[in-house]
From TrEMBL:
<feature type="binding site">
    <location>
        <position position="341"/>
    </location>
    <ligand>
        <name>Na(+)</name>
    </ligand>
</feature>
<keyword id="KW-0479">Metal-binding</keyword>
<keyword id="KW-0029">Amino-acid transport</keyword>
<keyword id="KW-0812">Transmembrane</keyword>
<dbReference type="InterPro" id="IPR037272">
    <property type="entry name" value="SNS_sf"/>
</dbReference>
<feature type="transmembrane region" description="Helical">
    <location>
        <begin position="259"/>
        <end position="282"/>
    </location>
</feature>
<dbReference type="GO" id="GO:0005295">
    <property type="term" value="F:neutral L-amino acid:sodium symporter activity"/>
</dbReference>
<keyword id="KW-0739">Sodium transport</keyword>
<keyword id="KW-0813">Transport</keyword>
<feature type="transmembrane region" description="Helical">
    <location>
        <begin position="100"/>
        <end position="121"/>
    </location>
</feature>
<comment type="similarity">
    <text>Belongs to the sodium:neurotransmitter symporter (SNF) (TC 2.A.22) family. SLC6A15 subfamily.</text>
</comment>
<feature type="transmembrane region" description="Helical">
    <location>
        <begin position="575"/>
        <end position="594"/>
    </location>
</feature>
<feature type="transmembrane region" description="Helical">
    <location>
        <begin position="226"/>
        <end position="247"/>
    </location>
</feature>
<keyword id="KW-1133">Transmembrane helix</keyword>
<feature type="transmembrane region" description="Helical">
    <location>
        <begin position="335"/>
        <end position="356"/>
    </location>
</feature>
<feature type="binding site">
    <location>
        <position position="76"/>
    </location>
    <ligand>
        <name>Na(+)</name>
    </ligand>
</feature>
<keyword id="KW-0325">Glycoprotein</keyword>
Length: 729
């Protein structure tokens, strides 16, 4: 034996010992990992196992710079143009204060609970709307696609309203404002006021004739309105530039776009309260017509406004919350944003009703003056005896109270002949009951107010800049509801997708800047979003409460928030909200069948609006809008259920979501007895790191031979067989 053989033998022995130590060490670590994977459903957080995975997800997905930025983004999305031109309009249309009570009830019963639900699933699963509902139940993945379609339809016409605001904004830098007085028409002999303007008002005329140059029906396209086309293009350019980098670019804009409108609204409220008749308008707002609360239409429109106001079903709420940390208190966010939205709507409605009261007072004074002249004429002609007129009343400068006294006396004395006199009662309530239809409420009521303000161009600039900011905040959330799910699902570049989406929307949106474009805005507003949104929210509620399981969902919330949510939400999600949503759906369908769809057309000769029914092709478009919005739900369900797309093809049917990555796995997910408590489905349970080639087959199932991270990896098998002795390893 060589003299150094003992040294060599000692070195070999040391290497063997070290190898055995390494093996035992690896075995112990593997055993620890195995035990953790076995108990993964029972522990509160699988931090050790998922540390690497969590860090990868955090690095891959953008995040909000601060909690304030996130809250402002949600407030900016929920508080939009609808708070100014839709909520006050519905309030005026549906009985003033009587509308506030159904709205508040529905906000508490379905608004806040469902808003909380969307915030929770988005924050927990950290995907867009497509990924979230595919994660919970692949057969219901069509809910996310339906949300994207509705978002796209709404974005088409919503940005048109921003374009209208930009037009008025550009016209506000002049003194006097262009809608201050009716234009004069000159001919060879004399000058006279434009008849259409004289029959209506200066602001009404400017809106319908100068801004929209509206046609008399939806069938008369009248060609493109080039002024509105340019404004629409500018609106889409702004949206595209703000959204091209996602929340990194749009989040910073929220600080201004979300806070500036409140400053303007408060200033407008103070100024409006100083106008004559504003108190009458506010009194009208808070005086409920209780009989209208029995009409299903009021509740249906209140529910629709709740959806629009909070952004339920759009996917924007889910998209924004998906950029949050998992332990964020989304319950606080849901309650805070919901009540900020409600009080903003009330604030805007106070301003609008104060202005409407002022406007009604002006019209009423004009009515009294005209009818007083008619009475004086009748007195001179002898149609009315001078003896019946009280001596203290001077008809040349009569007050509203004196006029109403004279009117009542004449009506009693001339019972049979009174209708032939054509006298008007000139009641201010009659003017307040005349609801300004649709978007014209903001552009007519507020523009009327601003003509009476000192430094009116300044107020006009501030107001329409506020409208632009309100609209952009909602548009950011709407576009995010399209971009985020598509990027998460198909892994396309966000910049390219944003440009393509905005360009396509602008091209389609040209139908809204025709002379008949306002009628198409009404059509899309009534049919592209209302009923489809209701169906989407119902399916969301069913997916969480019954498909996934309300008990498991509550446990998820407890794990995520660190406390159990109030039992109120359990009963709302499981019983009350689904029943109320189904009732509203049935009521909406019945109402749609009973009342023929139509729109309010502006008739130039009469200088007033007239209800017209849609032509046959218009009815077809209305039906197509609803069908296209809901079609993804049954389409995806059939594809998943019938396995129409091969799993290996790399398409939608074989995609499931694992936090920050996409995994391919078999489509048939029935029978998986696992919870999303820790953000995992069975195929995503972490497995111990034994090595790529170490896995076992389940006895009697030779076909279940898959990799460790597949459906039947070791962690998943052993979780189902906790009593298996360790020696079987």
């Amino acid at each position: 034996m060589p003299k150094n053989s003992k040294v060599v033998k000692r070195e070999l022995d040391d290497e063997v010992i070290e190898s055995v130590k390494d093996l035992l060490s690896n075995e112990d670590s593997a055993d620890d990992a195995f035990k953790k994977s076995e108990l993964i459903v029972d522990v509160q957080e699988e931090k050790d196992i998922d540390a690497e995975e969590e860090s990868e997800v955090e690095d891959e997905r953008p995040a909000w710079n601060s909690k304030l930025q996130y809250i402002l983004a949600q407030v900016g999305f929920s508080v939009g143009l609808g708070n100014v031109w839709r909520f006050p309009y519905l309030c005026q249309k549906n009985g003033g204060g009587a509308y506030l009570l159904p709205y508040l009830i529905l906000l508490l019963v379905i608004g806040i609970p469902l808003f909380f639900l969307e915030l929770s699933v988005g924050q927990r699963i950290r995907r867009g709307s497509i990924g979230v509902w595919n994660y919970i139940s692949p057969k219901l993945g069509g809910i996310g696609f339906a949300s994207c379609v509705v978002c796209f339809f709404v974005a088409l016409y919503y940005n048109v309203i921003i374009g209208w605001s930009l037009f008025y904004f550009s016209q506000s830098f002049q003194q006097p404002l262009p809608w201050d007085q009716c234009p004069l028409v000159k001919n060879a002999s004399h000058t006279f006021v434009e008849p259409e303007c004289e029959k209506s008002s200066a602001t009404t005329y400017y809106w319908y004739r100068e801004a929209l140059n509206i046609s008399s029906s939806i069938s008369e396209s009248g060609g493109l309105n080039w002024k509105m086309t340019v404004c629409l293009l500018a609106a889409w350019v702004v949206v595209c530039l703000a959204m091209i980098r996602g929340i990194q670019s749009s989040g910073k804009i929220m600080y201004f776009s979300s806070l500036f409108p409140y400053v303007v609204l408060i200033c407008f409220l103070i100024r409006a309260l100083l106008l004559n008749g504003s108190v009458d308008g506010i009194r009208h707002m808070f005086t409920p017509k209780l009989e209208m609360m029995l009409e299903p239409k009021v509740w249906r429109e209140a529910a629709t406004q709740v959806f629009f106001a909070l952004g339920l079903g759009f996917g924007g709420v889910i998209a924004f919350s998906s950029y949050n940390k998992r332990d964020n208190n989304c319950h606080f966010d849901a309650v805070l944003v919901s009540f900020i939205n409600f009080f903003t709507s009330v604030l805007a409605t106070l301003v609008v009703f104060a202005v409407l009261g002022f406007k009604a007072n002006v019209i009423n004074e004009k009515c009294i003056a005209e009818n007083s002249k008619m009475i004086v004429k009748f007195l001179k002609m002898g149609n009315i005896s001078k003896d019946i007129i009280p001596h203290h009343i001077n008809l040349s400068s009569v007050t509203a109270e004196d006029y109403h006294l004279v009117y009542d006396i004449i009506q009693k004395v001339k019972e049979e002949e009174f209708p032939a006199l054509h006298l008007n009662s000139c009641q201010i309530e009659d003017e307040l009951n005349k609801a300004v239809q649709g978007t014209g409420l903001a552009f007519i009521a507020f523009t009327e107010a601003m003509t009476h303000f000192p430094a009116s161009p300044f107020w006009s600039v501030m107001f329409f800049l506020m409208l632009v900011n309100l609209g952009l905040g909602s548009m950011f959330g709407t576009i995010e509801g399209i971009i985020t799910p598509v990027v998460d699902t198909f892994k396309v570049r966000k910049e390219i997708l944003t440009v393509i989406c905005c360009l396509l929307a602008f091209c389609i949106g040209l139908i809204f800047v025709q002379r008949s474009g306002n009628y198409f805005v009404t059509m899309f507003d009534d049919y592209s979003a209302t009923l489809p949104l209701l169906i989407v929210v119902i399916l969301e509620n069913i997916a969480v409460s019954f498909v996934y399981g309300i008990d498991k969902f509550v446990e998820d919330l407890k794990d995520m928030l660190g406390f159990a949510p109030n039992r109120y939400y359990y009963y709302m999600w499981k019983y009350i909200s689904p029943l109320m949503l189904l009732s509203l759906l049935i009521a909406s369908i019945v109402n749609m069948g009973l009342s023929p769809p139509g729109y309010n057309a502006w008739i130039e000769d009469k200088a007033s609006e007239e209800f017209l029914s849609y032509p046959t092709w218009g009815l077809v478009v209305c039906i197509l809008l609803m069908v296209l919005a809901i079609l993804p739900v049954p389409a995806v369900f059939v594809i998943r259920h019938c396995n129409l797309i091969d799993n290996s093809s790399g398409n939608l049917a074989s995609v499931t979501y694992k936090r920050g990555r996409v995994l391919k796995e078999p489509v048939n997910l029935e029978g998986d007895d696992a919870s999303l408590i820790h953000g995992k489905i069975p195929s995503e349970m972490s497995s111990p790191n034994f090595g790529k080639n170490i896995y076992r087959k389940q006895s009697g199932s030779p076909t279940l031979d898959t990799a460790p991270n597949g459906r039947y990896g070791i962690g998943y098998l052993m979780a189902d067989m906790p009593d298996m002795p360790e020696s079987d390893l």
